[in-house]
Write a structure and sequence with these properties.
This protein is α/β, with parallel strands linked by helices and 436 residues long. It has helices at 2-25, 42-57, 74-85, 105-112, 139-160, 164-172, 179-185, 195-202, 238-246, 249-268, 274-292, 297-315, 320-334, 347-373, and strands at residues 31-37, 63-68, 91-95, 101-103, 115-118, 123-125, 176-178, 190-191, 206-209, 212-215, 231-233, 387-390, 397-402, 405-411, 420-427, 430-435. Strand 15 and strand 16 (430-435) form a beta hairpin.
Length: 436
């Protein structure tokens, strides 16, 4: 136990040390880089916000956002776009390395950069809004969100002087473009193969920073004596790393359901400890994720009702409570997230998890029924029906041997010594028997 705690403490100290080292390395002659390699979520939004604030405090010449994302939450995307548009220093968005992409949410972030660039072999676009499970939105909700995101894309492109028509098509028609096409269409400013070429092409360009025109002077500011670009990567905090992992709605849902299942195992098998501890941790992580995701109150109430019914089923096994609990879990899972945001749990995952809960309850019910039908193995009641042997003639009383023990027994009929007898009742310290 002491070794585990020591290792955990050492890990925390190393993370803190790396964060401090990164902060100390930033300065007036260093680019502050943010690497986004995954979905856009609240943790990423907080990371970008912190990096811009840190770069301003360190008087860095610019912030570099190295982007590779398939998309993410609209609320987090808007937060990042807002931070970039109002940043007190230039923000360069570079879709890199080769093979990377700025899909969906990444399109808005790239358009928002003071300088937008792409590496060869990258792509951008396909920003049509969908839900978190990859399914198309339907009905009035789809039209509402599509109009909003199209207007957002247009306004960003117009503010940065980029191709407004293409920005609208990226949302409404899901068009996409390669790096070369994006540069020709005016979606991005240029193509840069590496960091050195990026700095060289960005140097001397005029950008609008917080309403003021500013000329980027990067070539001399961020190059060291050896000619290499001085750049420091701003790290995520440990909390942001955890949140980045659990903020996916499907992972958050699995943590919640896994925690519930572990707690049910602990309730049905008290003393195992491990399922209870694991379940509590999973539930806390799931609730942390739900805190930053657009949760529907009715869906959460259904989940809590389902958990209550399942717990009741473990104490009063009727079958009806368990069935109602599983049904409540299904409805709660389907309604868990606010439908207007397009965030939802994959339906196949919902039904799979619900089936696991149903099988678990079926297993518990089967074990309970078997236990009820099993003959009593301890106590006086366990003697009833057992077969022993008379040690002397019972007429009507005498001694019998049952289960290796000598008992005084009474019989309603004469039984000779050596005959087998069956116990019919236990009366205090005497048995009532009959000839077997």
């Amino acid at each position: 136990m002491t070794r585990v705690l020591s290792a955990a403490l050492l890990g925390v100290l190393l993370l803190a040390k790396s964060a401090v080292a990164a902060d100390e390395a930033a300065g007036p002659g260093t680019l502050v880089r943010v690497v986004i390699d995954g979905s856009i979520n609240p943790a990423v939004a907080g990371h970008v916000h912190d990096a811009i604030a840190h770069a301003e405090a360190a008087q860095a010449p610019a912030v570099l956002v190295q982007l590779d994302t398939p998309g993410g939450l609209l609320t987090s995307t808007r937060a990042i776009v807002k931070d970039i548009l109002t940043a007190p220093l230039p923000v360069i968005v570079w879709v890199a390395p080769s093979g990377a992409g700025a899909g969906s949410a990444g399109t808005f972030i790239t358009l928002a950069g003071h300088i937008a660039a792409m590496a060869p072999g990258t792509n951008i676009g396909a920003a049509h809004p969908i839900n978190s499970s990859g399914e198309e939105l339907e009905g009035d909700l789809a039209e509402k969100i599509e109009n909003f995101t199209a207007t957002l894309s247009e306004s960003i492109a117009q503010q940065r002087g980029r191709n407004v028509q293409w920005a609208e098509k990226a949302v409404r028609e899901s068009v996409s473009a390669t790096a070369e096409e994006a540069a020709k269409l005016g979606v991005v400013d240029f193509i840069a193969r590496d960091l050195g070429e990026l700095v060289a092409k960005a140097d001397g360009r005029k950008v609008d920073v917080a309403g003021q025109k500013r000329v980027l002077a990067l070539a001399k500011a961020v190059r060291g004596p050896d000619g290499a670009v001085r750049v420091v990567t701003h790290p995520m905090t440990p909390g942001q790393r955890v949140l980045d992992t659990v903020a996916d709605p499907n992972i958050a849902y699995l943590l919640m359901m896994g925690g519930m299942l572990c707690l049910l195992v602990e309730l049905t098998h008290p003393g195992l400890v491990l399922p209870g501890v694991t379940g509590a941790i999973c539930l806390l992580l799931g609730l942390t994720a739900l805190h930053v995701l657009p949760v529907s109150t009715s869906g959460l109430v259904f989940l809590l009702l389902g958990l209550a019914l399942l717990v009741a089923e473990t104490f009063v096994p009727t079958g009806l409570l368990g069935a109602g609990g599983v049904a409540a879990l299904v409805f709660g899972s389907l309604f868990l997230f606010d439908p207007e945001t397009g965030v939802r749990v994959s339906r196949s995952l919902v039904f799979t998890v619900s089936a696991v809960f149903a099988l678990f309850l079926l297993l518990v019910a089967t074990l309970v029924v078997r236990g009820q039908r099993r003959p009593i193995a301890v106590g006086a009641e366990a003697m009833i029906g057992e077969v022993g042997r008379a040690q002397e003639r019972l007429a009507p009383s005498g001694t019998v041997l049952v289960h290796g023990e000598y008992w005084t027994a009474d019989s309603d009929e004469p039984v000779d010594a050596g005959e087998r007898v069956r116990v019919t009742a236990v009366e205090g310290l005497r048995l009532r028997v009959r000839r077997a």
